[in-house]
Amino acid sequence: MTFQSQFVPLSIEELPALAVRCKDDGWRFVQMLAVAVEDGVNLVYSFMKDGVLVNHEIASVKPEDHVPSITDTFLAAFVFENEAHDLFGVQIDNIAIDFGGHFYAVSQTSPMTVISPAQKEAREKARKLAAAKAAKEAKAAKEGGEAKAQDGEDAELEAKLAAMDPEKAAKVRAAMAAKAAKAEGKEA
Amino acid sequence: MGKQTIIPFGPQHPVLPEPLHLDLVVEDEKVIEAIPQIGFVHRGLEKLVETRDYQQFVYVAERICGICAFGHSMGYAETVERLMGVEVPERAQYLRVIWHELSRIHSHILWLGLAADAFGYESLFMHCWRLRERVLDIFQKTCGGRVILSVVKVGGVVRDIDVAQLKYILDVLEGLRAEYEQICRAFLKDTSVKNRTVGVGYISTEDALGLSMVGPFARASNVDYDVRSLGIGAYGQLSDFQPIVSSDGDCYARMEVRTREVVQSIEIIKEMILRMPQGPIAVDVKGAPADGAESSMVVEQPRGECYYYARGNGTKYLDRMRMRTPTSQNLAGMTVALAGCDLADVNTIILTIDPCISCTER
Q1: Alpha carbon distance B187, B35 (integer Å)
Q2: Which CATH architecture fits B41-325?
Q3: Is the pLDDT of residue A147 over 80?
Q4: pLDDT given at position B72
Q5: Which terminus of chain A, N or C, has less C-beta within 10 A?
Q6: Across the interface, which of B50, B230, B324 has its CB nearest the CB of A3?
Q7: Do A81 and A157 belong together in one domain?
Q8: What is the pLDDT of residue A121?
Q9: How far apart are CA A51 and CA A70, in angstroms?
């Protein structure tokens, strides 16, 4: 048995059915966690069977969204669901052991969703740098492609000249050189 | 039918090394229901990942718990290495396993001492903690610290163990094993210990699976699951690994599983030392995890499976770091084990779960 882990998307509506299906199929509930993202909170529900860890991810849960509890299927989730409520402000309905917002004694509402301005700035900067790097790489790839195409044309011409009568080939080369010199003179 | 009363248990209680509160609903001397409450020592360590870069956070991770400190630093590092696609040198993987198994030995022996103290066997408690000191001596000799080791980094480890030190470890463990087996006889054969533990706090295999229990708590109920059997890191090099299980599901079974796991850990360390490859102990890790990249990992801590999650945001600071500790997974099992027990057995049952509340709250 070897360890594998994977992330798969999930919607709020699919969650209760997924929990029941996992329980029926012998998957073990591993954990549930919340991640603060720019457009809400992501919820990750993890299940494991035979060394395969599958993380089902509900993206961008808004503060007004209601998420059903899975504690009727997996009681062990009550700790994580209370935590997601107290630290991330996620509204979870019908938790089997519900502490009503008093699981953790925190002085601030949803403290894990607060992102400091410095952190925000650093993330923006990293995003811009990544975008600039990607654009530079795309440009280099495009230029490389054009240069490659030019090299291909030159090689084809050389092959044709090699197949010609040497005197005729010399004349063609001289004409091409004169044309190139004329074009350079015009540019200057 | 008697009158129902609620007895508050903890967070300050002689049997609890850490703050856990339980509302025990009792009828005469029987516990009908137990409602756990934590939240007294929440430190917000996961939030700190936003202001400590991914190398610095190793030192925060190992401060989550004073007993499984090494395991947390290793679990965190392995998760970030997975996130960044870092290949750790083989020797570093072996060294990590040695320190991790030493942590398991000292954690289990510490727990055995606490259990002995809980059922009034103080001399046994002292013998257990005396033996545990020898493992801490190994830590001091090989790492410099006795509790916080600070030897893990993302990409490997920061210290090697030389041949002389490896021989020292083998000698200490050999001496420890002989004395430990004498102590185990007291735990497993003594009638007064059996009276307090056999048949107490029973959990069936079906309940253990349904409640997603982990670690020795689950294995004592015949759940054949141990993360080490997945062969992550140098555990994959072991010639054979079988999780230690018991089918009795009571406090005695939990104690038996832990006592046997100490011997198993000694054997694992011996094998690691004999097979230890030469080579580098770390690789340089540069750059930052990609924006939106995610990884997850599991590690078998002394108390059971611990889950780690990391998410990058393109900077050297992670977006999110998550540790789901074994105790938070076992709290539901604890409430089931307590339901129906005698009030006098509550402390023994709680202890046999080996709860670590500091880990749980982070």
Answers
A1: 30
A2: Orthogonal Bundle (1.10)
A3: no
A4: 92
A5: C
A6: B230
A7: no
A8: 81
A9: 22
Would you say the C-alpha torsion A115, A116, A120, A126 has a positive or negative sign? negative
Q: Residue A187: pLDDT above 60?
A: no
Query: Can you list the pairs that B82-87 forms with residues at least 24 positions away whose Cβ atoms lie under 8 Å?
Result: B82/B295, B82/B297, B82/B310, B83/B289, B83/B293, B83/B294, B83/B295, B83/B310, B83/B312, B84/B154, B84/B285, B84/B287, B84/B289, B84/B312, B86/B154, B86/B155, B86/B283, B86/B285, B87/B283
Low-confidence ranges of chain B (pLDDT < 70): 1
Q: Are residues A154 and A74 in the same domain?
A: no
- Written as six digits, the tokens of A133 are 């790097």
Assess whether pLDDT exceeds 80 at residue A151. Answer: no
Considering A60-69, A110-119, B32-41, the range whose residues carry the highest mean pLDDT is A60-69
Contact B329 A31 (CB under 8 A): yes
Amino acid at B187: F
Nearest CA in chain A to B309: A33
CB contact under 8 A, B291 and A44: no
The residue assigned the tokens 């967070």 is: B11
Query: Chain A residue closest to B51 (CA)?
Result: A119
**B235 vs A1 pLDDT, higher one:** B235
Chain A residues 37-96 within an 8 A CB cutoff of chain B = 37, 44, 46, 48, 51, 53, 55, 74-76, 78-80
What whole-number distance in Å separates Cα of residue B208 and Cα of residue A76? 11
pLDDT at site A145: 76
Given this model, what pLDDT does residue B216 score? Answer: 92
- Domain of A133, in residue numbers: 120-187
Our count of domains for chain A comes to: 2
pLDDT one-digit tens code per residue, B8-20: 887 877 777 778 8
Q: Give the C-alpha separation, A10 to A26, whole Å.
A: 19
For position B306, what pLDDT does the model report?
A: 92
